[in-house]
Amino acid sequence: xxxxxxxxxxxxxxxxxxxxxxxxxxxxxxxxxxxxxxxxxxxxxxxxxxxxxxxxxxxxxxxxxxxxxxxxxxxxxxxxxxxxxxxxxxxxxxxxxxxxxxxxxxxxxxxxxxxxxxxxxxxxxxxxxxxxxxxxxxxxxxxxxxxxxxxxxxxxxxxxxxxxxxxxxxxxxxxxxxxxxxxxxxxxxxxxxxxxxxxxxxxxxx
Length: 206
Description:
By secondary structure, this protein is of the alpha+beta class. It contains 6 helices and 7 strands; from the N terminus they run ββααββββαβααα. The protein has helices at about 25-35, 50-55, 110-115, 155-165, 170-185, 200-205, and strands at about 1-5, 15-20, 65-70, 70-80, 85-90, 100, 120-125. Strands 1, 2, 3, 4, 5, 6 and 7 form a 7-stranded mixed sheet that branches.
């Protein structure tokens, strides 16, 4: 499906296309990734094509709005349409970063975007203020905790230790002490992602 819209007064966008999320191929993924890398506020994995691919494989009706300027991709808006006809961000029940992946300096009006999608309503609840397209429509602002992992886990550990009220010991040492104490009580520990062992669940509840 391709929808061509007249350019706005600033001529920053000239075409909007909508495709099925399962049509996200390697070339489009690379172009999308390149867009996300141009802005630090788009660094979350939720703004990356890899997350959209995971969601698209579940056959949940994911659609991708592709915004072009002079034949070049300049924006991507992945969305679902819920049973009431509202647009929702890709994987919205898990997604903590809603909105557009848009190249710096490119503008698109929210009404224009919704018209292209054949919708009147976009429901969001995790929208960064840097999302200029939707910022005027934010009803409530609040703070969200984040983990700054730039430089790797060791750099993160050093930053936490430097800020810790306990001085050089830091939170990691406290967690390490708790882990060793637990190992002495119950034996060796290991991390297992998404365990389905009912015995482990019952032990957690005990």
